[in-house]
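Data card: per-record layout.
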Amino acid sequence: MTLEGELGQVPGILFVDHVAIAVKQGDLEGHVNAYKLLGFREMHREEVYAGDQVREVLLEIGDGPNLMQILEPLNDTSPVQKMIDKNGGKGGFAHIGLRVKSARVAYDAMQAAGFTLIDKAPRPGSRGTTVFFVHPKSRADYPFGFLIEIVEAPEGGSHA
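The structure for this 160-residue chain is written out next.
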């Protein structure tokens, strides 16, 4: 089966929820303001602790459902800081978030299909979402090459 066929078997993928960009500590506001000059609108801001250790700002792009997520590490233990360190101290593309109807259903389907999942189960994410991450080298035959976040909207939420 092709990778396209395998992803087609994952139930409930709806659209790209967000593209995440990592920025160095202290650079968050400058990046947010630069995107605002492009007409993006800030819709959410939150500090996420536990294993993530990031400050995030979500920006709306036009009238569609797609968002830009700007991530600033809160400390040196943040996975985002480790990504920046691996990138020679530069920020940049962090991951792509895919919106699903049900994170649990998508998790079970992806696990059954042999994808390498980073989280042991879907877990709480920012803005009341339920999320899990898929490893960039998830498929030995055709690795994605970048981190994927699977995102279920908060109950009753569609865009937020």
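Known properties of this structure: The chain has one domain: 13-152. The longest strand covers residues 13-22.

See the next section for split statistics.
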